[in-house]
Write a structure and sequence with these properties.
The complex is a heterodimer of chains A (102) and B (165). By secondary structure, chain A is an all-alpha fold. Helix content of chain A is 76%, strand content 0%. In chain A, α1 packs antiparallel against α2 and α2 (30-55) runs antiparallel to α3 (59-89). Chain B contains six helices and no strands. Chain B has 165 residues and is mainly α. The chains are: A mainly alpha (102), B mainly alpha (165). The interface between A and B is large, with 69 and 82 residues.
Chain lengths: 102, 165
């Protein structure tokens, strides 16, 4: 059985991470930006698991659990913030919410 | 066999990730993201992390994305108009992104090419070993995580609580 080298998994993780970064920068809809962050977190998880297999370590799996937990907590708080933003300024466009600009 | 599965699902993951950031409507982005998470779950399974793959489907594709879809359907965001400065913005984003990607790939590929030594968790042993490590070596972070979740729940409740004014 031909094994896929870990570098390919790492490269895939890098590609997904960069797609997330690009989406976060380009998109102006708060929800889509938020989904880009989730994409980045998943890219990191993939990297963790690729290294876990390479070095035969299970600790990385624990870290993936923690990343998932933090992502869940972040989703709860972030979506609450988005709801509050919509209620406060009736928009989800990040460019119109610039009152902290001074 | 592993190679075929890897390349197919890597392509699915990258394609749906691109769709996430290219769709104008948020709800289509959310569905693309679910597809991406599914493909990633398959890859996790291939890496010998069956438990993580199951959690990926249950927690990510199940719980978190349903939360996203709830909010999207609740708020009904207008499809995002890509303004006239779209290409300027895209170039602005693509430049650092491409630089970072080039850096990472150049670092990754010429380096030693580690070949995985099979699945680290054996078959059927996985959850047992993970639980052992999680509740012995990582007990304190585990407990701290529960506090984090508690604080997140309280924060979410406080943030969306309707304040009559």
């Amino acid at each position: 059985m031909g094994m896929v080298p870990a570098t390919h998994y790492l490269a895939l993780g890098a590609v997904l991470f960069v797609i997330g970064v690009a989406g976060f920068i380009v998109r102006r809809n708060v929800i889509t930006m938020f989904m880009s962050v989730e994409l980045m977190l998943n890219a990191v998880n993939l990297t963790f698991l690729a290294y876990a297999r390479t070095w035969n370590q299970v600790d990385a799996h624990i870290f993936v659990f923690f990343v998932m937990t933090v992502a869940a907590a972040e989703a709860a708080v972030g979506l609450a913030l988005i709801l509050g933003l919509d209620r406060h300024s009736q928009t989800l466009d990040i460019d119109t919410v610039n009152r902290l600009q001074g | 066999m592993e190679q075929i599965v890897f390349y197919v699902f890597a392509a699915v993951a990258v394609g749906s990730a691109l769709l996430v950031i290219l769709q104008q409507r948020a709800v289509y982005s959310a569905f693309s993201l679910i597809v991406c998470f599914g493909a990633l779950a398959v890859l996790y399974f291939q890496l010998g992390a069956a438990l993580v793959a199951a959690l990926q489907v249950i927690v990510y594709a199940g719980a978190i994305m349903v939360l996203f879809l709830f909010v999207i359907m609740l708020l009904d965001p207008k499809s995002e108009r890509f303004g006239p400065d779209r290409f300027k913005k895209t170039a602005l984003a693509a430049l650092p992104a491409a630089a970072f990607l080039a850096f990472v790939l150049l670092r990754v590929f010429p380096a030693w090419s580690p070949r995985g030594s099979g699945d680290p968790l054996g078959s059927g042993e996985g959850p047992k070993r993970i639980a052992h490590i999680l509740f012995q070596d990582y007990l304190l972070p585990f407990e701290v995580t529960s506090i984090l979740i508690l604080v997140a729940i309280l924060g979410a409740v406080v943030l969306v609580k309707h304040r009559p004014d």
